[in-house]
Amino acid sequence: QVQLVESGGGLVQPGGSLRLSCAVSGITFSIYDMGWYRQAPGKQRELVARITSGGSTNYADSVKGRFTISRDNANRTVYLQMNSLKPEHTAVYYCNADRLWAGRKYNYWGQGTQVTVSS
Fold first, then answer.
1. Which of 91, 96, 107 is nearest to 43 (CA)?
2. Which pLDDT tens digit goes with each residue over 59-118?
């Protein structure tokens, strides 16, 4: 079955860095667009960053210049490098894989990893 397993979350002080990883199995990873989303308490889930199967990236305005999304197709993994973290970046971060093919949308989620930015 399809599995997206996030790791790398944790507690970090303001100004610190974390690198999230999402290991994917059960799908042809290289043909999927991959994304990182986050959900803070009491808020809706929102897109943080996305990378297409071709390597194009886009970011939420709030993280541009701080976060970098990348992918390793050989290892079926997508990463989110987060620098200069702020308390407002505290959230559960989710990995997403999606693809539109023959009129059907294929969409999968990981279980999430908690990121807490606090002194």
1. 91
2. 999 999 999 999 999 999 999 999 999 999 999 999 999 999 999 999 999 999 999 999
